[in-house]
Specification:
Keywords: Membrane, Transmembrane, Transmembrane helix. The chain is an all-alpha fold and 105 residues long. It is built from one helix and no strands. The longest helix is centred in the C-terminal third of the chain and has 24 residues.
Amino acid sequence: MSQPPYPPVAGPQVGYVPPAPGAPAPGGPAPAAPTQVVFPGQVQLPPQPQYAPTPAQQQPQSFATGFPQYRSPAPSPKNRTGLIVGIIVCLVVIAGAVIGFLLIG
């Protein structure tokens, strides 16, 4: 019986003092270097990959042929519905305020 009947218990041992928080562990990795605040323009960043081709790299477009008299349609008129509704709402509110002022006064 040269070995104990069961393995030693993991955990705090008698007389064991845990290291202070923030202190490097003995035999562990060295603490990280302090960080520094950097503002844009101070550090040269590596170039980012370009996924879209530049206009010089694009192939020239070929349009459909055979329709020499074709004219593209005229552009649609601007949608002014919101402007008209807003003007009507403002006029109704102002009229209501004037009528209410006259009735109270």
